[in-house]
Amino acid sequence: MQLSSNKTAQRTLRFLLIEDDKTVVYILQTAFSLLDVPYTASSVESAEEGLKLIEQDSWDILLTDYNLPGMNGLELILHLQMRNIALPTIMLSAYDSFELRHRVKQIGVRKYLPKPFDVEEVLDAMRDLLAL
User: Fold this and answer.
1) Whole-prediction pTM value?
2) Residue 57 belongs to a domain with what CATH number?
3) From first to last of its 132 residues, what are the pLDDT tens digits of the chain?
4) Considering its fold, how many domains does the chain have in total?
5) Cα–Cα–Cα angle for 95, 41, 110, rounded to 5 degrees
6) What's the domain range around 113?
7) Distance between CA atoms of 101 and 42, rounded to whole angstroms?
8) CA distance 68 to 125
9) Fewest CB atoms less than 10 Å from the CB: which of 9, 35, 117, 121?
């Protein structure tokens, strides 16, 4: 699914969302417009699909769920690191635990947000990572 907004002549930012919950995808893609920057957002339901898109194109930010069908979000990040692909990442998870928070931090994920999250928290994390 793709959503676009071109409000100004700025460079269009590219967001990749890897999330298998369609409600979360809808909420986040709707919220992206609140950043008030030109953007294109694409979403896929699995880490494997996301990995293909990341290898084919450039992205400004990755938002990924932890618990995905197939490869989980942590495994995706480790695959990216093995391929020397550095991408500002926000990880979301309904399976919040001390161990997961520690592991996420250990592998260098920049932002971690447990579900349920406040949309403004996600937008603030994106603003921070994108220096908006």
Assistant:
1) 0.90
2) 3.40.50.2300
3) 555 444 444 789 999 999 999 999 999 999 999 999 999 999 999 999 999 999 999 999 999 999 999 999 999 999 999 999 999 999 999 999 999 999 999 999 999 999 999 999 999 999 999 987
4) 1
5) 45
6) 2-130
7) 26
8) 21
9) 9
